[in-house]
Design brief:
about 375 residues; about 15% strand; Rossmann fold; 6-stranded mixed beta sheet; 2 domains; about 35% helix
Length: about 375
């Protein structure tokens, strides 16, 4: 996993030992507050690149000659699993925190989810020295709770499977502690995710097809924006698990996240569909396909055997679409995004903390 420290000009540290990037360094590059109006643009994505470079360089692109030979074409894998927090989600959160005024950063932020989003929020908060509260179901893996505590985040639990419970806890905590609510989707998420495609088009200049997983739609929407703005000839395809996501076949309809019907894809955890990202993805994608559980399992295995990479099932969707033949790429090199590598088998093994209660804050906890 990538070193979490800054490679250049180590930032000053706060009193609790957490490294904080100076606001004068970050803020001028992108000052877009939460809820800023307007559809994201390629220019917004480009403006985010300098901010992102302060925290993590380009994620690598790998290819495997044996897989290339079997497919009869060059296949390049963008390893977003190497991002801090183990997924692409941190990109949008860096963008968001860079645009918050100092008093809101000092008060802290709060978000809810059950996997990659809250993990990335914890990491981004740690790097900014921002207090983070993460509202999570009480059946999340113990490994996720440990990761949050290690970042200095404060987990707060709600009953899993209870409609509205998570949102109620989030609202109560935000009001009590005057925290800024951060959502998984929105303008910042699309802009941050778009930097994935920006990097890949630079890393593979002759890329012909780009294939991405569909969750709330931010990764697909941001990447499609970049492809349309910088390389119109690139075909962009979104992939969803057949039993966990409803993908509209009509371009004018948004992509809507449904209840996961498969344990394989539980990391696609957006609590709410993202209307902005869904509309953009449905309008800009060239194709939307679904893959079966067996195809996802096969792709996870190929990542492990051929690429020596750990892939969470939801992160392997793009490769699954290629291996199963669900996507017919354009002639030329194909790029797929391994969007996350957080494999958490200990579902339900949360430490014994009362449901609805706050976890004790333990910044130095092991994780």
């Amino acid at each position: 996993m990538r070193d979490e420290g800054l490679r250049q000009n180590e930032a000053p540290r706060t009193g609790n030992g957490v490294s904080r990037t100076p606001r004068s360094t970050v803020f001028p590059a992108c000052g877009d507050p939460i809820g800023a109006p307007g559809t994201p643009t390629v220019h917004d994505i480009e403006a985010t690149l300098p901010v992102l470079s302060l925290f993590a360089g380009d994620t690598p692109v790998h290819h495997c000659p044996e897989v290339d030979q079997r497919l009869g074409r060059r296949l390049f894998v963008k390893l977003e699993s190497r991002q801090p927090g183990g997924s692409f989600k941190v990109r949008g959160l860096i963008r968001l925190l860079a645009g918050l005024p100092q008093h809101r950063l000092d008060q802290g932020v709060i978000g809810r989810g059950r996997a990659n989003f809250v993990r990335a929020l914890g990491w981004a908060g740690r790097r900014y020295g921002v207090p983070v509260t993460a509202v999570v179901p009480d059946d999340v893996p113990a490994s996720l709770v440990r990761d949050l505590l290690a970042c200095g985040a404060r987990p707060v639990f709600h009953p899993a499977g209870s409609p509205g419970a998570g949102e109620a806890v989030l609202a109560e905590q935000a009001g009590r502690h005057r925290l800024t609510v951060v959502r998984p989707g929105g303008r910042h998420a699309v802009i941050g995710a778009g930097t994935v495609a920006w990097e890949m088009l630079r890393q593979v200049p002759d890329l012909a097809t780009l294939i991405l997983p569909l969750g709330s739609g931010s990764l697909a929407a941001g990447s499609a924006l970049v492809a349309r703005g910088r390389r119109r000839g690139v075909r962009v395809v979104g992939v969803a698990p057949a039993r966990s996501l409803t993908v509209s076949s009509a371009p004018q309809h948004r992509i809507a996240a449904g209840t996961a019907g498969s344990r394989q894809v539980w990391a696609l955890d957006s609590a709410d569909p993202d209307p902005m990202a869904g509309e953009l993805a449905a309008r800009l994608l060239d194709e939307r396909v679904t893959v079966a559980d067996e195809d996802i399992r096969r792709a996870v295995g190929v990542y492990a055997r051929e690429y020596r990479q750990t892939a969470e099932p939801s992160g392997a969707l793009a490769l699954a679409a290629v291996l199963s033949g669900r996507v017919r790429p354009a002639p030329g090199p194909v790029g797929v995004v391994l969007s996350g590598g957080n494999v958490m088998a200990d579902v339900g093994a949360r430490p014994a903390l009362a449901t609805g209660r706050e976890s004790p804050r333990a910044p130095g906890a092991e994780g």
